[in-house]
Amino acid sequence: xxxxxxxxxxxxxxxxxxxxxxxxxxxxxxxxxxxxxxxxxxxxxxxxxxxxxxxxxxxxxxxxxxxxxxxxxxxxxxxxxxxxxxxxxxxxxxxxxxxxxxxxxxxxxxxxxxxxxxxxxxxxxxxxxxxxxxxxxxxxxxxxxxxxxxxxxxxxxxxxxxxxxxxxxxxxxxxxxxxxxxxxxxxxxxxxxxxxxxxxxxxxxxxxxxxxxxxxxxxxxxxxxxxxxxxxxxxxxxxxxxxxxxxxxxxxxxxxxxxxxxxxxxxxxxxxxxxxxxxxxxxxxxxxxxxxxxxxxxxxxxxxxxxxxxxxxxxxxxxxxxxxxxxxxxxxxxxxxxxxxxxxxxxxxxxxxxxxxxxxxxxxxxxxxxxxxxxxxxxxxxxxxxxxxx
Length: 390
Description:
Layout: H1 4-33, H2 36-52, H3 54-64, H4 66-89, H5 95-106, H6 109-123, H7 129-158, H8 160-178, H9 193-206, H10 208-238, H11 243-264, H12 273-288, H13 297-324, H14 331-343, H15 345-359, H16 361-382
C-alpha cells in the first residue's frame, strides 16, 4: 500500500526509541538517585500531562495533517532526552529539573501515538485491518525485542546518560523518516479549537463501546504500569542482576509476543472481540501471578514470556473493535481521546508502584496481577455485544 512501508518504518524507529527509554529512564533514575518513588514519578510525568491535552491534539491531527505533527513530537522527544543526558553529565540535574523536562516533553506525545494509530485505518482498506493491526502490534513487540535489551546493555556498559541520548537520536531519525509519508485523509474544517476538542471528548464518552474499551485498558494498563517499575527492582534488588538483565527480560517478552502475533494476526475477530479480550487478559493475570514466587531470573523471564504470548489476542481484538465502532471522519480526535483514556492506567500504575514497592515488592506484584484479572472481567460486562452507529 502506498505510504504504508514508510509509516511502519517511522513507527518502528520511534517505538524502539520508546522501549529504550522505558528501560533506560527507570534504570537511570535508580542508579543516579536510588529512588523507586522518583522513577515511578518520572515515568508518570513522561505520560500523564500529554493525556490531558489529547483532545486538543486530536483536533490538530484532523485539521493540519498528521505526518508533520508526528515529526514535531519526535523532535521534541529528542531534544528532551538529549537535555536530560547533557545536564546529568554536567551534574546539573536535580530531581525537580528531571521531572519538569519529563512533564514538558509529554505534552506533544499524543501527536505521535494518536497520529500513527489513526494513519493505519486511513491508509489501509477495512478488509485488511486485522492484518494491518497485526503488523502494528508486531511492530510494537519487535521494538521491545530490539529496544529493551539495547537500553539495558547501554546503561550497563556506558551509563544511563548515553542510553537516554541514544533514545533521543533515534527519535530524531524516526521524525525524519515520517516526512516521507503522505497523509491521505482530507483535512477537517471546523469551529474553535477548544470547541472541537470538547466535541471529540463528548463523542468518545457517549459511545458505550469506546468507554467500555477504555475501562478495560485502563485497568489492564495499571497492572502493566506497575510491572514497569517493579520488574527492574525485582531483577536488580532481589535477584542481584545487572541493568542488561532487565533489558533482556523485556526483550524476551517482545519476542514471545511477536511469535504469537504471527499466528493470531491472520484470524478474523469480527463478533468475537469481547471473548478474545477477556480470555487473553485472564491468561495474562495467571502468568503474572507467578512473579511473586520467582526466585531466579529464569522464572521471571518465563512468567513474562507467557504473558507476552497470550497478550496478542487482546491487542488485535481491541484495536479492530475500536476502528470498527468509530466514525472514520473523526479518526484523529477519536484516537487521541480514546488512546489518552486507555493510557491513563499505565502512568497511574507506575506512580503508585513506588510507594507499593516501598511497602512490599511482593505486594506490588500481586497488585499488578490482580488488576489484570479485574480487567479480564470488564469486556463482557461493559462493552456492548452489538456495534453501535458510528
